[in-house]
Design a protein that fits this description.
alpha/beta; TIM Barrel; binds 6-O-phosphono-beta-D-glucopyranose
Length: 478
């Protein structure tokens, strides 16, 4: 077979990602410090794959030094994770810091830096405090928005001198979509208006935290940046027919532009207001809040891209007795012959990288952005172990290569993409799927004391980082 080599620019980041709640475990957690995820796990353990959840996770809390040694060995220059809001404070209203957790965070950051690894920190990766969820309805409350700003201020005060890359949220649309739109997660309430309010309040929270960050002068003092990590679903219409294109456009409006536009452009698409009004799901907002959003856009964005989303116009009638759902305008479409990741049930279509990159260039002012997550989750990976017990995850290497090459092609075409963060550094716990789909460069062996072992992909990534050359098939850009 014929191969070509694509050069990876020296300054193009090749890193890996995770989050606090998916790795740390509950060691040292105080009774009142449950997060929303912890509540869900405690209330509905039976839906978490094999009963695993955040309780021990990867035990990063105790083993971060060991993990950082591996990061260094692989050659990672950047590691993306979060700070767990529910654990960082003892009192969310008067923002009393939990010194034990803050000290642990301090040690992690220092250890990363000592090893030449830049921390990229998210202020919320679904770690909304359970108490704020139960008392105020979580992100449905503007008071919670203000508490988030206060929490962020405390975090910046502690670590703002060392952490240069900040993000407000990871995938701010996800929790409320699963909870209030699709009603498939605790507390299983279908309520589209709440969905919209959470969407708006998180966009507002991002703007308010950006405002605070700018006022405090972190950029000037430390050259740091603040952004948000979004998960736009690159949307394709089934056909070139008008009705299918319209279905894709509306999907994009409700699930992608709803965060991309306010965060980057400072404004919602006017049509969204019309649709919200038509379906009686308008969020509650003031002129002043919309102005804050307008004036405080992000410096850059991280995008989590895993799969394409294909839609067609509805072929069946909408049931009007159920609450409004954007699916009123579309149905999902499964492309016959598509390549699938059968374990995760996601289509594999690496071109999403290029198409999204071009969109960032053309529709979003070519703002600086990077891939904050992309990776391949596979079940029962231990069956691929060789005689030395190393998981031979060639499928992951192929998956990453195929996605990276489309991304690099977009960089060649002028998209302002600065890097690629693989999900994930080690296997870790996901919401509900827990350890089902393994994503890591490094295996976590649940049978043997959560021991770490690099997979074949870790050695491959190490080589990629060092040599900056990606091998691709000659006929690849089809
Ligand atoms: C991403 C989330 O969307 O998907 C991660 O940001 C999550 O937190 C990852 O772990 C993989 O999810 P899953 O369900 O395939 O294990």
């Amino acid at each position: 077979m014929d191969f070509d080599i694509m050069k990876i620019p020296r300054n193009f980041i090749l890193g890996a990602a995770a989050s606090a709640w998916q790795t740390e475990g509950w060691a040292g957690k105080k009774t009142k410090q449950d997060s929303y995820l912890d509540l869900w796990y405690k209330n509905n353990k039976h839906v978490w794959h094999n009963g695993y959840g955040p309780a021990i996770a990867t035990d990063f809390y105790h083993r971060f030094k060991e993990d950082i040694v591996l990061m260094k060995e692989i050659g990672l220059t950047h590691y993306r994770t979060s700070i767990n809001w529910s654990r960082f404070l003892l009192d969310y209203e008067s923002v009393i810091v939990d010194e034990e957790y803050a000290d642990y965070t301090d040690q992690v950051i220092n250890e990363l830096l000592k090893n030449g690894i830049e921390p990229m920190i998210c202020l919320e990766h679904y770690e909304l405090p359970g108490e704020l969820f139960e008392t105020y309805g979580g992100w449905g409350s503007k008071h919670v928005v203000d508490l988030f700003v206060k929490y962020s201020e405390k975090v910046f005060e502690r670590y703002g001198d060392r952490v240069k890359n900040w993000f407000t949220f990871n995938e701010p649309i996800v929790v409320q979509t699963r909870v209030y739109l699709d009603a498939i997660r605790y507390p299983f309430e279908q309520n589209t208006k709440k969905w919209m309010q959470w969407n708006f309040n998180k966009a507002l929270a991002t703007a308010k935290v950006v405002q605070l960050f700018n006022q405090k002068g972190y950029k000037e003092r430390y050259g740091s940046k603040i952004g948000v990590i979004l998960n736009p679903e690159v949307t394709y219409a089934r056909s070139s027919a008008k009705h299918d294109i319209e279905a894709a456009r509306i999907y994009d409006l409700f699930f992608n532009r709803i965060f991309l536009d306010p965060s980057i452009k400072g404004e919602y698409p006017p049509e969204l207001f019309e649709l919200m009004e038509k379906h009686d799901i308008s969020f509650d907002s003031t002129e002043n809040e919309l102005q804050i959003i307008k004036e405080n856009t992000v410096d850059y964005v991280g995008l989590n891209l895993y799969f394409p989303y294909r839609v067609k116009a509805r072929t069946t009638a909408w049931n009007d007795s159920t609450p409004f759902h954007p699916a009123y305008y579309y149905e999902m479409f499964d492309l016959p012959g598509r390549k699938m990741n059968p374990y995760r049930g996601w289509e594999i279509y690496p071109r999403i990288m290029f198409d999204m990159a071009m969109r960032m260039k053309e529709d979003y002012g070519n703002i600086e952005w990077f891939i904050a997550e992309n990776g391949m989750g596979v079940e029962n990976e231990f069956r691929f172990k060789n005689d030395e017990g190393i998981i031979q995850d060639d499928y992951r290497i192929e998956f990453i290569s195929d996605h990276l090459k489309w991304l690099l092609k977009a960089v060649e075409r002028g998209s302002n993409c600065t890097g690629f963060m693989l999900w994930a550094f080690t296997d870790n716990v996901s919401p509900m799927n827990a350890y089902k789909n393994r994503y890591g460069l490094v295996e976590i062996n649940l049978e043997e004391n959560r021991n770490r072992k690099m997979k074949k992909s870790a050695y491959w990534y190490m080589n990629l980082i060092e040599n900056r050359e990606l091998q691709i098939h000659k006929d690849v850009f089809r």
